[in-house]
């Protein structure tokens, strides 16, 4: 694919390293001319076009891959990346959040049941030893692209008969509509991980690919309702957080969470 001939595309000797100049050329190309998923010129083509070494080209591309603007596919080349969904942490519906971004949400229920949860979940939900809870395993998509895998537990006393409902729509909407349950507080932990084979297959990525993992325990009027863990694609999802200088316990805490 030819790189457009423009005066701004010429690399100049000077204080700005050539890899940084080339990085900005490729940035403009990816942002202004190439739709997501379009291949960019090979390292060899770019090196020849701009009269630089392939090491210089590789450095420029690597920086844009790190930023999430480009993505490498083994054996195929480098492509413009799909824009990441930017999640600002709050308790909200995945369905409504995706629609607000102009995309079409979809949910597939992979499995569900009434089971005895792990000890950590039983403790989080305030369940007695051996008491069962509702378990829900779902795949979430945006515009047909797998975005997240969710495995969640729900307190049966707070949402009796939950599994009898249509669980392919907004779960938070269902809880509010059918049970009058408004989740109003959540404590969430986020970490990076490598996708296991099952999660990778569901998300359409290679095993070992980076994923963002969210574990959230949510309550309504002080009663624990949900213990949810979600695995989001690292190449399509990012998190924005507002920070201040307040120390824990020094004032009101913002609501935390993801999207369901």
Automatic annotation (TrEMBL):
InterPro entries: Bact_HTH_transcr_reg (IPR050679), Chorismate_lyase_/UTRA_dom_sf (IPR028978), Tscrpt_reg_HTH_GntR (IPR000524), UTRA (IPR011663), WH-like_DNA-bd_sf (IPR036388), WH_DNA-bd_sf (IPR036390). Gene3D superfamilies: Chorismate lyase-like (3.40.1410.10), Winged helix-like DNA-binding domain superfamily/Winged helix DNA-binding domain (1.10.10.10). Keywords: DNA-binding, Transcription, Transcription regulation. Residues 16-83 form the HTH gntR-type domain. Pfam families: GntR, UTRA. SMART domains: HTH_GNTR (SM00345), UTRA (SM00866). PROSITE patterns: HTH_GNTR (PS50949). GO terms for biological process: negative regulation of DNA-templated transcription. Signal peptide: none annotated. GO terms for molecular function: DNA binding; DNA-binding transcription factor activity. This is Transcriptional regulator, GntR family. It comes from Allokutzneria albata (Kibdelosporangium albatum).
């Amino acid at each position: 694919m030819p790189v457009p001939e423009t005066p701004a595309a010429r690399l100049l000797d000077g204080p700005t390293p050539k890899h940084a100049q080339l990085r900005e050329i490729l940035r403009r190309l990816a942002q202004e001319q190439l739709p997501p998923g379009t291949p960019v010129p090979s390292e060899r083509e770019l090196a020849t076009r701009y009269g630089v070494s392939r090491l210089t080209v590789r450095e420029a591309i690597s920086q844009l891959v790190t930023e999430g603007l480009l993505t490498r596919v083994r054996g195929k080349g480098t492509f413009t990346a799909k824009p990441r969904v930017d999640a600002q942490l709050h308790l909200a519906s995945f369905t409504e959040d995706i629609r607000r971004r102009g995309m079409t949400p979809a949910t597939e229920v992979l499995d569900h049941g009434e089971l005895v949860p792990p000890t950590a979940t039983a403790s989080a939900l305030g369940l007695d030893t051996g008491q069962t809870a509702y378990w829900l395993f779902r795949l979430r998509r945006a515009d047909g692209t797998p975005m997240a895998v969710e495995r969640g537990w729900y307190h049966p006393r707070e949402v009796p008969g939950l599994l009898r409902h249509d669980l392919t729509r907004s779960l938070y909407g269902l809880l509010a509509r059918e049970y009058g349950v408004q989740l109003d507080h959540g404590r969430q932990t986020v970490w990076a991980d490598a996708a296991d084979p099952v999660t990778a297959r569901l998300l359409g990525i290679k095993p070992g690919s980076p994923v963002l993992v969210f574990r959230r325990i949510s309550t309504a009027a002080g009663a624990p309702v949900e213990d949810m863990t979600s695995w989001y694609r690292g190449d399509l999802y990012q998190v924005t957080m507002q920070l201040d200088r307040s120390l824990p316990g020094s004032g009101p805490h913002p609501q935390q969470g993801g999207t369901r």
